[in-house]
Amino acid sequence: MPKGYWVSAYRTISDPEKLAAYNKLAGPAVAAEGGRTLVRGGRVVAHGAGIAERTVLVEFDSFEQAVAAYESAAYQEALEALSDGVERDFRIVEGID
Question: What is the side-by-side strand order in the sheet with 54-60?
Answer without folding.
Answer: 36-40, 54-60, 4-13, 86-94
